Amino acid sequence: METVEHLRELFAYNDWANRRVIHALKPNRSEKARRILAHLLITEKEYFERLDSKDSTGFDFWQNLSPEDCEDLAQENAENYERILKRFDDAGLGQIAKYKTSQGVAYQNTFRELLTHVLFHSSIHRGNIIFKMREESFAPPKIDYIIYLRKIATK
């Protein structure tokens, strides 16, 4: 499997896992978990924009979003990443993105590196959300990658 195909699959999983978390948080109203979810989704969007050389100087990654805002942003992110990954073959993933961090520091990374970072960052924070939900006695969703694979294999 080519890297770009694998990234497409992983971003489809990312969207599935994000939506399961959003669905689980709606009735539970765990504010701490929702705040982490908002951060996760805002970061996904900001990194998408960094692929287009965004200057993130002063950007606040910890904005407050409603559950409905989270749902809308998850949809927007999924569409954006799906669209950009359709544009590339493996060679295109080596393209360099130049951007500035929220502290105003200039960096450059390949698209492959930034896309991989987005997936790892989101996964880490979904783990934080699951932990908070358990801590607050809410039932977390099952979002393991293998569960996703089993689910799509039966379709």
Please tell me about this protein's structure:
- This protein is mainly alpha-helical and 155 residues long.
- The protein has a single domain (3-153), classed as dinb family like domain (Four Helix Bundle (Hemerythrin (Met), subunit A)).
- 65% of the residues lie in helices and 6% in strands.
- It contains 5 helices and 2 strands; from the N terminus they run αααββαα.
- It has helices at 3-28, 31-50, 67-86, 111-135, 145-153, and strands at 96-100, 106-110.
- The chain has a two-stranded antiparallel ribbon.
- The protein is globular and about 45 Å long.
- It starts with a helix and ends with a helix.
- The model has no long low-confidence stretch (mean pLDDT 95).
Name the CATH superfamily assignment.
dinb family like domain
Strand content: 5-15%
Give average pLDDT, whole number. Answer: 95
Just name the CATH architecture: Up-down Bundle
> What is the rounded distance between the termini?
21 Å
| C-alpha Rg (nearest Å) | 16 Å
Give the domain tally.
1
Which short descriptors sum up this protein?
single chain; 155 residues; mainly alpha; Four Helix Bundle (Hemerythrin (Met), subunit A); two-stranded antiparallel ribbon; 5 helices; globular
Q: Care to give the gist of this entry?
A:
The chain is mainly α and 155 residues long.
Give the SSE layout.
Elements: H1 3-28, H2 31-50, H3 67-86, E1 96-100, E2 106-110, H4 111-135, H5 145-153
Antiparallel strand pairs: 1-2
